[in-house]
Amino acid sequence: MKKIFLMFAFVATVFVANAQENPSTGDYFDGLTRPLTFNRMIPPHALEVTFSKTVHIIFPSAIRYVDLGSADLLAAKADGTENVLRVKAALRDFSRESNLAVITEDGAYYTFNVKYADEPVKLSIEMTDFIHDGEVVNRPNNALDIYMHELGQESPLLVKLIMQSIYKNNDREIKHIGSKRFGIQYLLKGIYSHNGLLYFHLQLKNSSNVPFDVDYITFKIVDKKVAKRTAIQEQVIWPLRAHNNVTLIGGKKSERAVFTLQKFTIPDDKHLIIELHEKEGGRHQTFMVENADLVRAKVINELKTK
Hints:
The protein is mainly beta and about 300 residues long. Helices cover about 15% and strands about 40% of the residues.
């Protein structure tokens, strides 16, 4: 028995010595795979957390995914928010470094190496300015090629740029669709198309002295003619993204918004109804969009996205 024990001890000693002399390269496939080079790595941000205080991280877009490297960390979206993540230590003075990964609605990916600190210096962190580091060659550091299921084959970053471009250009491609009641004018300024998505450019003008508080906006396809005692058939289309979706328009003010919707067409016996409802008010606005207007949507390639 003593000889067997000594033999195992000798083998273990040799194994440790070889491991120290020949550290692992991470290649467990005998050269049959390509190693990941450092220019493929997304550099993480350094983050300190503690047990008795909470670190808040503010992201430029709604949080869609969070992954914690270990049970030493606790993280959750701040109550009532979509883009603020609160992080703290689950126990006092954990010794092992952990990590944290976050994906946001605009397709951005953020990664953090997390350490414990008794008194973290940075308790409130704003991530907007850290998305781009200015180095074109380090593309993975931007990490904005993450796709969302609802946007199909379109990049969330490109959707954001297109909406910003439509809003900035402020062209009026459509001049015959809108409604005007009670000092409120609601206009459809343009419909745009790109890669399976439609973009609706809307404007609300409040010529009255009373602020207009938006309750909700709906896009729905309904029957043109409905016989008496026949149930109305309608299909609600939910916007996927919105830019400058302001909910309060002051007196004598005007605001515009851009909505992104999944591509659709309208049957001949139906039309699209866009409704704007005022919260606790009666100045609702409604107008119709026909399929002929929809199929004439301007191709987004004709616009400048910068």
